[in-house]
C-alpha cells in the first residue's frame, strides 16, 4: 500500500513550490553574494600568482581608459572601478539590450600584501591585466639551517 501525504490545496501546491524555487534561484543569482552558486560579478576575473607576483585579469569590453580606476588599499585590497557607457541611438529602436551599462566596482582581498609602488596595469583588446608585486614580507625566504 502506497502512502501519500494529504494536501488541502491538492495539485495547486506543486506549481506554487516550483514558482517559489524559481524566484529563489533568481534572487540567488543576482544577490551580489560571491558565496552563492551561480553568482557572476562584473567584471569576470581570473587571478593567479607566481613566486613574486599576483596577476588579475578582467574582461572589460567597451571600457575606455578614462573611465577606469584601479586602486590598492590596506596593502592587500585591489579595487577596480569604472563605467561602461550606453550606446546612443540616433534614429534606431532597441530590439534587444543584453549588455549591462553603468558604473561598477569590484574589490578583492588578496591573501598577502602587495607593494603598491610596483603595480602595473595594461588594457589590451578589452582585457585588463594587473600585475601586483608581492611585498617583501609576503615572499618566501629560505632559512639556512646550522648544524652543531
Give a structural overview.
With 148 residues, the protein is mainly beta. It has a domain at 40-86 and 101-136: Immunoglobulin-like, CATH 2.60.40. It is built from one helix and seven strands. The strands form two sheets. The protein has a four-stranded antiparallel β-sheet with strand order 1-2-7-6, with no helix packed on it. Strand 1 and strand 2 form a beta hairpin. Mean pLDDT is 80; it is low at 31-39.
Strand content: 35-45%
Radius of gyration: 24 Å
Report the CATH topology name of the domain at 40-86 and 101-136: Immunoglobulin-like
Average predicted confidence as pLDDT: 80
**Text of the CATH class of the domain at 40-86 and 101-136:** Mainly Beta
Low-confidence stretches: 31-39
> What's the tally of helices?
1
Helix and strand run? HEEEEEEE
* Main sheet specs: 4 strands, antiparallel
Protein structure class: mainly beta
The number of E-state strands comes to 7
- Supply the CATH architecture of the domain at 40-86 and 101-136: Sandwich
> What share of the residues lie within helices?
10-25%
The side-by-side strand order for the widest beta sheet comes to 1-2-7-6
- End-to-end separation in angstroms reads 81 Å
The shape, in one word, is flat
Amino acid at each position: 500500500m502506497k502512502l501519500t501525504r494529504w494536501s488541502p490545496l491538492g495539485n495547486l501546491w506543486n506549481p506554487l513550490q516550483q514558482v517559489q524555487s524559481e524566484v529563489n534561484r533568481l534572487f540567488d543569482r543576482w544577490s551580489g553574494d560571491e558565496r552563492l552558486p551561480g553568482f557572476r560579478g562584473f567584471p569576470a576575473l581570473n587571478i593567479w600568482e607566481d613566486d613574486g607576483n599576483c596577476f588579475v585579469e578582467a574582461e572589460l569590453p567597451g571600457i575606455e581608459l578614462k573611465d577606469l580606476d584601479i586602486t590598492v588599499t590596506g596593502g592587500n585590497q585591489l579595487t577596480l572601478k569604472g563605467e561602461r557607457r550606453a550606446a546612443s541611438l540616433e534614429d534606431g529602436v532597441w530590439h534587444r539590450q543584453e549588455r549591462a551599462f553603468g558604473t561598477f566596482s569590484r574589490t578583492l582581498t588578496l591573501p598577502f600584501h602587495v607593494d603598491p609602488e610596483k603595480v602595473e596595469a595594461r588594457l589590451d583588446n578589452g582585457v585588463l591585466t594587473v600585475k601586483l608585486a608581492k611585498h617583501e614580507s609576503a615572499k618566501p625566504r629560505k632559512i639556512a639551517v646550522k648544524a652543531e
